[in-house]
Amino acid sequence: RKRIRAAQGIPLPGSAEWLVPPGGLEEDLPALDIGRDWFDVLAAAVTLCGGETPDLFRRETRPATEERRDERGQWRGVATPGVNDVSEWLGWGGMVPPAEGNAVLELRSAALRPEALPPEAASAPCWRVHSTAQEDAAPTFDADTRPSLFVLCGFLGSGKTTLLNAIIERQRARERCVGVIQNEIGATGVDERLVGDAAPVLAMDEGCVCCTISGNLRAGVRELMARANPEVLILETTGLANPMNLRIELEGLRELARLAAVVTVLDSLHGEALLAESELGREQVRGADVVVLSKCNLASPGQRLGLQAAAKALNPAARLCESGAEALPPELLPLFDAAGASQGPLRRMPGAHVSHADEGFSAVRLFLPRPVPRADLLLLARTCPGSPFRVKGILNTLEDGPILLQGVGDECTVEPFAGAAGEAAGEAPAFIVCIGRELDRQALLAHWANAGAVEEPPAAG
Description:
By secondary structure, the protein is α/β, with parallel strands linked by helices. About 25% of the residues lie in helices and about 30% in strands.
């Protein structure tokens, strides 16, 4: 240990108490243990690169002094029983270290057996990495080539795809390939078109990955890995997916990918109402390793604090972070940037877990074969019968050409749509998807008939 003793002590300013009593230790640092951690990593790297374990271990000891500060504030070294400098040598390829003191222990080649080493030295990883001499040698530093798998959950319109695009942009800047599996409850997907060519995307539409198309995820991961060999995989679930129902699916992916984390996005504007009304929304929070409160720049301080408290009450163990104008919270950077260790399968929770069908959620898709005035589209989206929770689509306007329309509750926005990768703007059939509880398909069809909506896509050509 590195020790500094204050002979006169160190008083606590403005108090009769002592910060360090006279003759007490001002510093007592476990220098050997701290240095050993660094030394073990360096030695393991040499073994890993050289492909062989050390053939020399040598430990030397020398008397050392304890530093003391006298009453004049001057330093002096005082020989103290039990205080020593300890040096350790490891050698590869027959190297011979210089003698600097009294060798307490020196082992070479055949005599260099783990049981002959001091316990703290025998446990170092340099003795096991790339060791083929023993069949039971532990592969401590074996490379795990499986991609990290992140599951991105969150209720309808919470901002999952916005966060996804920010993650992809960050990883592309670091020259890391991200593969995306996007699942949407509607038969025609919108979200995969929003990623464009930023990352290889596999769309899994026609149902929810945790129930109606359960069993397809493994095949999807295999396809995406064969196509792009990504370092990071992100499964963006439908807004109605319950991560608690994904446990069996994810456990079946162990040989293909390692589960890094389940990230749930929670809308700060509507989150409190969602958690109060929907067991599905609550399950999305309970099943998360990380909960991201989105749109915090638009929420009031009361909304943010209330949602934080509600999320913590449901899942005290989850990491909580906020996003606003910047979609990717700084706290998430280490999680996605590092090839972190697997979190393992989703935590087991007793009892049955709710699905979107249990709460009456469904999706209705309609096609709009002709361009419509932009103002008419906005009015139709905001006045849908049955008050769908989510309205989204890619539509053609008379004024602006193709647009992306997205609505959550009473909010509705449009923006120009340039087309997905390999698809010219306006090339695919224009469509609208409404998602909500107990939706009346015929009522929605009659409502959107004012814009020429039909149930089947128009014939090509």
